[in-house]
Amino acid sequence: MKVLFAAAEGSPFIKTGGLADVIGALPKALLKNGIDARVVLPKYKSIPEEYTASMRYIQHIEVPVGWRQSYCGIFELVFDGVTFYFLDNEYYFGARDGVYGHYDDAERFAFFNRAVLQVLPHIEFQPDIIHSHDWHTGMISPLLDKHYRHDSFYQNIRTIYTIHNLQYQGVFPYEVLGELLGMEHQYFSPDKLEYKGGVSFMKGGIVYSDRVTTVSRTYADEIQTPHFGEGLDGALRWLGDRMTGIVNGIDDKSYNPATDPHLFQRYRSSVTKKQANKAELQRVLGMEENKNTPMIGMVTRLTAQKGLDLLSHVLHELMDDELQLVILGSGDPHYEGFFLDMALRHPDKLSVQIRFDERLARQIYASSDLFLMPSQFEPCGLGQLIAMRYGSIPIVRETGGLNDTVQAYEELTGEGNGFSFTNYNAHDMLYTIRRALSVYHQPEHWKRIVKNAMAGDYSWNESARQYKQLYEEVLSPVYS
Ligand code: ADP
């Protein structure tokens, strides 16, 4: 079985969030299940030279973007056994920094979506399934229907679309339809690509793919309600059992505290070595050095989704408690400013690092005792999984994948791997943090919860099996 993943980011080449982790890890897990899974990504300027230098140039072709033809260079790199294709266009991807957020994202990703389909005959890979991810690749399924189905090469290709975050939809002005995608007005209706007067790439993936998945069961249920549905709950309800939730895993080889080269001290389960990481991080970040002070970590995009309003609301109160908080993230300037200002007032207790930093992220997972994710909504969330793998106990709000992967600790039975609260309420969160701190100070319970968290299976094994089953379903002759 041949499956082509199309996405806008993938570790270790280019990453802004959890999507990259998934694209870097799931194909490897599928490969182990006998599936020839490959990946196609844009060839961004920001991909480190250590990778671009080893890419093999295959050839270049022309890709139609509306009425124009654009250059598309095709490069290939086999990494960790997985074949990655990188599509090059100097103007769209090769000559600018960053991944998203450019004024012409509609054009950049219209090009990429079209290019993914256009290059297939040239890479000698005829996939049985194209598996697209999030809005950046949402137009692949509609473009396949519109421009390629008449060609026998493409006729039997099935499509799967995975929603990693419904909030980002890629909605662009009406003109995009004809001028960039080469589609007629008939595609612009509420049951097709139209969304609030614009053209939605996200909706394209949802409406035109054979199957839709999202990254946890709870999120699959949530997004069918108006509260979480971002205006697409109707379209998602319409899918019925063509939508399923399959929880993400993590690359447990890369995220392994016993071998992670970024840590100050590597460890399996040793509390002492974990504390040594904490002491070193305190020193590096200029915080008060005390290995007994409970440290709470956060590694996150600084956006409203991540529950930062709750934290802002009670941060003054929290700073009265005996704890340290380390925040690594970047994003909304409002949060960046607020947290930086608070860090100036509490230098011993609060460290705020505004940047994207893979090494520091891993050091925080390894050094912290607790990991805070009070999200408004969370499709899956990988932070809590990585944290548990590194023995840092998650404090989460019960939503989406956080709800599916974190079980509240029960002191009576000794079961559970974290702490959680239900309502999006700052004092409920504060209460839960304080409860976690009280358990931290009871060594018997603490040992138990850390053991539970570290013993969990956060690998891709089970979920890869579920994807395989889904692929088999859409390829079966009785599928309709
Ligand atoms: P999302 O995809 O919504 O950003 P996830 O929890 O699913 O959230 O995944 C976030 C991923 O990005 C994790 O691997 C996390 O460690 C990483 N990450 C987030 N912010 C940073 C940062 N500032 N520096 C390094 N890694 C980060």
TrEMBL record:
GO terms for biological process: glycogen biosynthetic process. Residues 2-237 form the Starch synthase catalytic domain. Its EC number is 2.4.1.21. SUPFAM superfamilies: UDP-Glycosyltransferase/glycogen phosphorylase. Signal peptide: none annotated. The keyword Nucleotidyltransferase does not apply. Pathway: Glycan biosynthesis; glycogen biosynthesis. It catalyses: [(1->4)-alpha-D-glucosyl](n) + ADP-alpha-D-glucose = [(1->4)-alpha-D-glucosyl](n+1) + ADP + H(+). It holds the Pfam family Glycos_transf_1. Keywords: Glycogen biosynthesis, Glycosyltransferase, Transferase. ADP-alpha-D-glucose binds at residue 15. GO terms for molecular function: alpha-1,4-glucan glucosyltransferase (ADP-glucose donor) activity; alpha-1,4-glucan glucosyltransferase (UDP-glucose donor) activity. Residues 289-449 form the Glycosyl transferase family domain. CDD domains: GT5_Glycogen_synthase_DULL1-like. It comes from the Bacteria. NCBIfam families: glgA, PRK00654.1-1, PRK00654.1-2. Belongs to the glycosyltransferase 1 family. Bacterial/plant glycogen synthase subfamily. Synthesizes alpha-1,4-glucan chains using ADP-glucose. This is Glycogen synthase. It comes from Paenibacillus abyssi. The gene is glgA.
